[in-house]
Amino acid sequence: MNPRDAKMAMSSILNTDDIKKALDAFAVADSFDHKKFFEMVGLKSKSADDVKKVFTVLDADNSGFIEEEELKFVLKGFAKDGRDLTDKETKAFLKAADKDGDGKIGVDEFAALVKE
């Protein structure tokens, strides 16, 4: 999915102002908090279906998983000017979500993380 399609998909699910506020809140390196971020963008209150759609946007290579490389660019999935996560943030995010320890995040793990 190209970045323009991703942005359109995201903005059809989430409010672009909420996305911008959330990205601004975590603009500083190593400040990212997935729980607060998902809450701020309004993802926490969305249906399981919408959460799956967001997962699909973030799964850039359409493998059915969000791998560590994709996780680094997760904020870009919400808005093209989102920053890259630091290695520390990426690893913490992966650790929080990867319940089965396979080194990647499946759709069910992502949905569980969002609802935490």
From TrEMBL:
<feature type="binding site">
    <location>
        <position position="59"/>
    </location>
    <ligand>
        <name>Ca(2+) 1</name>
    </ligand>
</feature>
<feature type="domain" description="EF-hand">
    <location>
        <begin position="46"/>
        <end position="81"/>
    </location>
</feature>
<feature type="binding site">
    <location>
        <position position="61"/>
    </location>
    <ligand>
        <name>Ca(2+) 1</name>
    </ligand>
</feature>
<feature type="binding site">
    <location>
        <position position="102"/>
    </location>
    <ligand>
        <name>Ca(2+) 2</name>
    </ligand>
</feature>
<dbReference type="GO" id="GO:0005737">
    <property type="term" value="C:cytoplasm"/>
</dbReference>
<protein>
    <recommendedName>
        <fullName>Parvalbumin</fullName>
    </recommendedName>
</protein>
<keyword id="KW-0677">Repeat</keyword>
<feature type="binding site">
    <location>
        <position position="98"/>
    </location>
    <ligand>
        <name>Ca(2+) 1</name>
    </ligand>
</feature>
<feature type="binding site">
    <location>
        <position position="100"/>
    </location>
    <ligand>
        <name>Ca(2+) 1</name>
    </ligand>
</feature>
<feature type="binding site">
    <location>
        <position position="104"/>
    </location>
    <ligand>
        <name>Ca(2+) 1</name>
    </ligand>
</feature>
<dbReference type="GO" id="GO:0005509">
    <property type="term" value="F:calcium ion binding"/>
</dbReference>
<dbReference type="InterPro" id="IPR018247">
    <property type="entry name" value="EF_Hand_1_Ca_BS"/>
</dbReference>
<dbReference type="InterPro" id="IPR008080">
    <property type="entry name" value="Parvalbumin"/>
</dbReference>
<dbReference type="InterPro" id="IPR011992">
    <property type="entry name" value="EF-hand-dom_pair"/>
</dbReference>
<keyword id="KW-0106">Calcium</keyword>
<keyword id="KW-0514">Muscle protein</keyword>
<comment type="similarity">
    <text>Belongs to the parvalbumin family.</text>
</comment>
<dbReference type="InterPro" id="IPR002048">
    <property type="entry name" value="EF_hand_dom"/>
</dbReference>
<comment type="function">
    <text>In muscle, parvalbumin is thought to be involved in relaxation after contraction. It binds two calcium ions.</text>
</comment>
<feature type="binding site">
    <location>
        <position position="70"/>
    </location>
    <ligand>
        <name>Ca(2+) 1</name>
    </ligand>
</feature>
<feature type="binding site">
    <location>
        <position position="109"/>
    </location>
    <ligand>
        <name>Ca(2+) 1</name>
    </ligand>
</feature>
<keyword id="KW-0479">Metal-binding</keyword>
<feature type="binding site">
    <location>
        <position position="63"/>
    </location>
    <ligand>
        <name>Ca(2+) 1</name>
    </ligand>
</feature>
<feature type="binding site">
    <location>
        <position position="65"/>
    </location>
    <ligand>
        <name>Ca(2+) 1</name>
    </ligand>
</feature>
<dbReference type="Pfam" id="PF13499">
    <property type="entry name" value="EF-hand_7"/>
</dbReference>
<feature type="domain" description="EF-hand">
    <location>
        <begin position="85"/>
        <end position="116"/>
    </location>
</feature>
